[in-house]
């Protein structure tokens, strides 16, 4: 194996080393357990007796970097425009945890916290976050118990990811550490099966579109995220194929933006039922510029929504003057008319809370000092 390949593998898997170091290894060298990679900063965070993890694809791309293999890679960073709908999912998780903390019948005397990250809908970011949820964010372990403490996951459970591709990768890795994730063809002639991911060259997208155009099949099952589906439909509109019957996954079949493509008229698919979450809309709208400044994600949301800068945080934009009215906004963040995936986040968070309650609580009280292993949740 070449030196370049060795370095590449090291950069990907170095965070795993901390998990497998034994306590004996720390006794000889008190700083031998060291985190080699910078942890990802929290998008939304609140401390608590038990902290629940969350990942949502609030952005859709990750900053690319040309690897030199002569220095450590740069910190992974999301890029592109913000997905306000995904931000609503993340804020719904925050709302749910606050609601649980205010209850007296569920985890009484216990405060739940949250550690929510932006996965960029990218596998590399998802895997790094999975390692971080497993290892924690402490850069050094300086006492003899540090390695044994690191064997316990930093979070007992995780909500997410909202996209299947990073979710599958995270689930496979987190399953090794016992961290739960709340996330045949028969008698059918399949003419072709194609795959596409947005980071692939445009030539791949064009090839998939041409396969569809030349095909004699009139029914297409499209199991795609709405972003990839949008790219595919935009490519197909350049030279529309004959009328097709689309069968969609829940990711894009309920996306209102897809309605602008006429070729999808009559598409059918499985949709998550609508729901109502009392109090959520008021929580989403109860956001001031001062609160937004406490989180880079909320700062970006505010500045993107109102095209202004909060205290000079964006160059070239006018400064927000206090006249911005979040209640007048009409975007996916404020749209609570069809709470589908949002309700799944709400229910998943409650499921984790009930599981924790079952482990640390009896009929009269809860014990926050009970050691909670992830596999118990």
Number of helices: 14
- Element string (H = helix, E = strand): HHHEEEEEHEHEHEHHEHEHEHHHH
Distance separating the two termini: 41 Å
> What portion of residues belong to β-strands?
5-15%
- In helices, the fraction of residues equals 25-40%
What report would you give on this structure?
By secondary structure, this protein is an alpha/beta fold. Helix content is 37%, strand content 11%. It has 14 helices and 11 strands. The protein has helices at 3-13, 16-20, 23-28, 84-101, 123-135, 146-150, 164-174, 202-214, 226-236, 250-253, 280-285, 289-292, 296-306, 341-360, and strands at 33-34, 44-46, 50-56, 59-62, 78-82, 112-118, 140-141, 158-159, 219-222, 245-248, 268-269. Strands 2-6-3-8 form a 4-stranded mixed sheet, with helices on both faces. Strand 10 (245-248), helix 10 and strand 11 (268-269) form a beta-alpha-beta unit. Helix 4 (84-101) runs parallel beside helix 14, helix 5 packs parallel to helix 7 and helix 8 (202-214) packs across helix 9 (226-236). The chain is globular and about 65 Å long. The two termini are 41 Å apart.
